[in-house]
């Protein structure tokens, strides 16, 4: 095929994407790989939101590709002004898709939408099939967006719709293995948000499939999140529209103590919240304070604080903002800036929730009682902290601390690291082997308290957790301030077995519930001790996983000796430092909260009262290797 000037420009554009994929899709790891899928699916979702097509199908194939099909109008297949077919332009020109769109709500607009051509640029092969006007059209690409076969008619049909299948380029991605559960979670969410849309996912690799369809999506969404909790009432469902902004909110209080608010703008999750969430929270605080005042429930002069009114609250806030008002902030563009969204959400939620409480007094009284209890506990905790700070209370905690904690000699909190170590024997090795200047050791005895339903009072009464809180020194709950932490890294170090994994999850649950800002600011890590050592030719090497061991074994000729570490305690001090603690060699896994709902859901399932869902979930999802999401 002959290249003219414009083709060369296009190839240069796609080449730029291949050179710096991170700039377009954030990263080339698992997350970046799935970004490609969202990019294509979002276009199908846009078409459904605009009223065309009620079913979207995703198929993870056996040949390394993923196929996305919609039943919309089909991408226009005429010639574009450049002489090329419209599909060719859409899939080869950077940011081409947007130019065709006008008005309405666009899913991908402003958030992560980089365009379908970016997906093509990062794929070794892509095939686009369009059913439209009685005909089947097809175009294919190879090697990062080069036209392999231009658009042509390949048949006739009565159906309409678009199918995009692509094979991600393994020279670009660290992994090209699609994750069924990642795709499933995200698609379930889309189905919750768009009433009447059916999403089917099939995994040919494992011969399994799921289908999502909800008639009253947001209510189902809340019920799904709260599945393992005890709700205090039926889900409250509110909708409204003002100044062109559409608001859908569903909320429900449970008997737990944590808040979980998930927000969306034009169906895309806003991880960092923004003006719509602020409007929602402001409205709730206002409604609660008016209610307790009008019903003489408030015994003190100070009003309820926002955090009191959100204890045990699960809520989904979904807004639709027209493209011309869309404004995003923050590095990841995950925060809505649009100021009008705040006032619109605030006024709609204020009006509807006030009305609901007036109509449902018993429910309202029950929720108010919870908020008032939270206020009392919060004030008591604050008073106790202040007394300790002012030296009024002779703190016995220092004594406990001195007995258990092996401090670092250095005084720079940013450089210092705290190791939370499973068991006294490993604690001993860690203490001997550590870098004394920067590494502190806190051995933990046995299992940590399960914090799924613990209140601040329970935590304060638990010696082990108290010790951790005191040692870190950053405060808990709404007082938790990462800048006050005595350590720049807090590293959970447990055995690489089931018990160790359980302790990790208990600790992560604790941090998630009570010191969430520390996770968000990237302070919490999990150490990654080796599973084996292998000795050959008088050298010794450490091996992290079973896969690595298998590779090594097949590569080694002659004799070698393998040692499997059953626990940290089996390593001597030097070995433990060298493999797991030394910043030069170790591989730490940062604990992130990328997805509050998933973390919340997992922790509820894993930690809640019900045994069956826990077993089921563990069997299906937990693989305590590096792949597990808790240990990213
Ligand atoms: C499987 C993934 N689906 C898609 O990528 C997809 C894009 C798309 C689409 C239209 C319809 N369905 C689609 N599916 C469309 C059609 C028409 C007008 N606008 C959109 C029409 O028939 O008039 N398009 C998205 C962008 C464009 N089409 C284009 F117009 F820019 F080409």
Task: Give keywords.
flat; 22 helices; 21% strand; 23 strands; single chain; binds ligand 0R9; disordered C terminus; alpha+beta; Ribosomal Protein S5, domain 2; eight-stranded mixed beta sheet; Rossmann fold; Heat Shock Protein 90; 632 residues
Describe it for me?
There is one protein chain. The chain has 632 residues and is of the alpha+beta class. Helix content is 40%, strand content 21%. The chain folds into four domains: 5-214, Heat Shock Protein 90 (2-Layer Sandwich); 218-378, Ribosomal Protein S5, domain 2 (2-Layer Sandwich), CATH 3.30.230; 394-529 and 573-593, Rossmann fold (3-Layer(aba) Sandwich), CATH 3.40.50.670; 532-564. Mean pLDDT is 86; it is low at 98-104, 107-112 and 622-632. The structure holds ligand 0R9.
Cα end-to-end separation = 45 Å
Helix vs. strand class: alpha+beta
Which spans have pLDDT < 50 for at least 5 consecutive residues?
Answer: 98-104, 107-112, 622-632
Kindly report the name of the CATH homologous superfamily of the largest domain.
Histidine kinase-like ATPase, C-terminal domain
Number of domains: 4
Task: Give the overall form.
Answer: flat
CATH-defined topology of the largest domain:
Heat Shock Protein 90
Task: Tell me which ligands are bound.
Answer: ligand 0R9
Round the mean pLDDT to the nearest integer and report it: 86
Largest beta sheet: what is the strand line-up? 5-4-3-6-2-1-7-8
How much strand? 15-25%
Summarize the topology.
Elements (H helix, E strand, L loop, with lengths): L4 H15 L1 H5 L4 H20 L5 E6 L5 E5 L15 H7 L3 H4 L16 H6 L1 E10 L2 E8 L3 E11 L4 E8 L11 H14 L4 E6 L4 E5 L4 H9 L10 E7 L2 E9 L6 E6 L2 E2 L5 H20 L11 H4 L3 E8 L7 E2 L5 E2 L2 H21 L1 H29 L7 H8 L12 E6 L1 H10 L5 E6 L11 H5 L2 H10 L16 E5 L4 H17 L1 H5 L3 E3 L5 E5 L2 E5 L2 H10 L5 E4 L8 H9 L7 E2 L5 H12 L3 H11 L11
Parallel strand pairs: 1-7, 11-13, 16-17, 16-18, 18-19
Antiparallel strand pairs: 1-2, 2-6, 3-4, 3-6, 4-5, 7-8, 9-10, 10-13, 11-12, 14-15, 19-23, 20-21, 20-22
The structure holds ligand 0R9.
